[in-house]
Amino acid sequence: MTQEDAEALSIDDEVEDLDEINEVIPAAYSITAYGADYPVDGLVKRLDKGDIVVPLFSVDPEDGQSTVGFQRDFVWTKPQCDRFVESLLLGLPVPGVFLVKESTGKHLVLDGQQRLKTLQYFYSGILKNREFLLENVQQKWKGRSYKTLEADDRRRLDDSIIHATIVRQDEPSDDQSSVYLIFERLNSGGIFLQPQEIRVALYHGQFASLLNDLNLNENWRRLYGKKSARLKDLELILRFFALFHKGDAYRRPMKEFLNKFMSENGGLKKYGEGELRALFEQTVEAVWLHIGHRAFRLKTAVNAALVDSVMVGVASRLAAGPVLESTGLRSAYDEMLNSPDFMTWVTRSTADEDFVSKRLGRARELFSAVK
Question: Which of 238-242, 258-262, 263-267 bottoms out in mean pLDDT, i.e. has the lowest?
Answer without folding.
Answer: 263-267
